[in-house]
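Open question from group meeting: does this chain pack into something compact, or does most of it stay loose? Before anyone orders reagents, we agreed to write out a predicted structure and look at it together. Recording both the input and the output here so the notebook holds the full record.
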Amino acid sequence: MVALDGSPEACLLGQPSTLPPQECLWPIRADQQPEVVHTMDEFLEILQMQRHLERVVVLRNGIEMLGQTGALPEQLCQAIAGSSGVRDVLGRLGQQAASRFRARLWHYSARSKEKEVKVPKSRPPPDAVDKKSLAALKQEFMAQKSEGKIKLDAPLYISELRWQSKVSHPLNPNEWVKTATSCDIFDVAPFSKQMPLWERSEGGIFVGERGAGSGLHVDQCLWSNVGELLMQTSTCVDGLLAGHRATISLVLVCPMYRVHRHTHSDEAGTSLTCYKVHHPCLKPFMQQGRNWCGFKLFALWPWSERHRILDEAGKGAVFRPPLTKREEAFIGRAKTVALVGPGDVWVFSGGQPHTAMCVGDGVNVCAYESFIPANEEAMKLLVQSNTKSAHWRNCWMDDDDLDELYEDVVDSLQEALRDSRLNPELRHRLEVCRRVMRECEDSYCKDLWAQEDRGERRRRREDGSSDEGGSPCSEGPCKKVRSEKSPCESASVHGGVNRKPEVNSLGVLQVS
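Structure tokens returned:
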């Protein structure tokens, strides 16, 4: 990222480095705090080798430690610099620059509801503009605003921003990607290329403002996420926020911060609760550096709530402060609730229900990478994607896409294990991951490993054809039915013995 004039303000992209006095937040209990680590080695060990289910792990000052300070594209930095909100960012991105990006755009005109801005068939963009480009979404946003469909003060959120077409990655000219960040955790993690999966080519940037964020959901695949918020300064709230920041956060504990609970009613008579942060001499903690910006609240619900919280609150539920009593009760059920601040890097399981909400003045900018670590429990979780018992149905990945993802995992495992120079501990972990995937009951996984055993290799993503000689479930709609059996239930599948499946403390199905 480029510091536009070399000044400290420019290095912060002109964005606030602290929360304003009396900022309205979520309540956060001491038992909802995430884990915090203090060294890059400790974090990378957790990131690459350990399980992430039921965990949110924070690396303080992670952006600087992991060399991520210069990752944002220059066009985006110039648009963000000094912007007071997402409207400013959209306005400062010229038509040519906006046409190079693909993204999704959301507005929050109705309280606690997110609505996507989509280009309708009845109003196509100009011939030279792709309807999924940010330029087309800007045009549609202006049209809907003029028609009164979007409130003038509705919070906005740009999600999954990436290049419109694949480009040569600046750190590896032979690698063609759509991710718009020039450096990722993938580029600094020593074993990233040997992980069973690391979705680097489509990584997205998220740009939001107060009242906008990602509604309640689970990811379309039961993988892990590593996220980052750049800017090296941060604040914390005494007692409630101390020591954690969402999925992973950087925290500076300041005993002068206080949180006050305020309850009032809105125009409809609904009781709203707001938790406000106060500091008697609120001043920026600033360090030199080219950093991303903003603050975000993050909540992660336990594995045991993977269906119930989504059934009750609804997919896409937005918890915008001040909270209603019902919303406060939902947040109270979360396993981890935290304030993510500038400079934070964090890792969590996307297979658990989670949500995020931007807070504070100015613009919030973050990015995520999805991956599978070299860990047995993580692999067991992955192969339960698109199954009713483990994965909430309305968040499933398209089955064809999941099949192609499994192809990538098989290829990655086989390629890594063929390397005679592979770290011995990593080899053992990857062999366990391969065994887990071989023993899973997914029909397409079985097909893939049968091909490997026969010395064959056919990939849907490469030739677009089906294997007419394969099993009945290797093509067409037949393969859409995913097995509900986990790898450790396979004995009961073939042995004719009915055993009761249970969920262990890690949330993985096992046979009692």
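Observations to bring back to the group:
The mean pLDDT is 80.
The chain has two domains: 20-372, 398-460.
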